Amino acid sequence: VQLQASGGGPVQAGASLRLSCAASGSVGLTNIIGWFRQAPGKEREFVAAIRWSDADTLYKDWAQGRFIISRDNAKNIVDLEMHSLNPEDTAVYYCTASQLAHIARNGAYYRYWGQGTLVTVSS
């Protein structure tokens, strides 16, 4: 399974940005696509995840209501819409895939990882 994240870049505080994760290869082996982020000097953290089959979602508490995760099964793409961005959202955003049935916040449950896309929010 290969994951290609895109859509990052520099934005001003308050702006919106849409990240995309394109999955290829043996996508059928995966059940969940998730987004994690890692800010400079900080640990990687869970952002949101979605299940391919029923679009069930899980968000980190601070992402709920501000970020929206969605999937396009026909194109094997998972998007992360991010709104009202602030400098604390500056990070490398990674998309990842899990073979498990349940949606997990722990990155250890995600087997496949993309290369990441950098989001930089300036004030």
List keywords for this structure.
123 residues, mainly beta, single chain, seven-stranded mixed sheet, four-stranded antiparallel sheet, 50% strand
Percent range of helical residues: under 10%
Q: How many E-type strands?
A: 11
Q: Tell me the series of helices and strands, N- to C-terminal.
A: EEEEEEEEEEE
In round numbers, the mean pLDDT is 97
Number of helices: 0
What structural class is derived from the secondary structure elements? mainly beta
- Report Rg: 13 Å
Taken from the alpha-carbon principal axes, the silhouette is globular
Strand content: over 45%
Main sheet?
7 strands, mixed
Q: Uncertain regions: pLDDT < 50 for 5+ in a row?
A: none
End-to-end C-alpha gap: 37 Å
Characterization of the model:
The protein is mainly β and 123 residues long. Helix content is 0%, strand content 50%. It is built from no helices and eleven strands. Strands 2, 4, 5, 6, 9, 10 and 11 form a seven-stranded mixed β-sheet that branches. It has a four-stranded antiparallel β-sheet with strand order 1-3-8-7, with no helix packed on it. The relative contact order is 0.33. The model has no long low-confidence stretch (mean pLDDT 97).
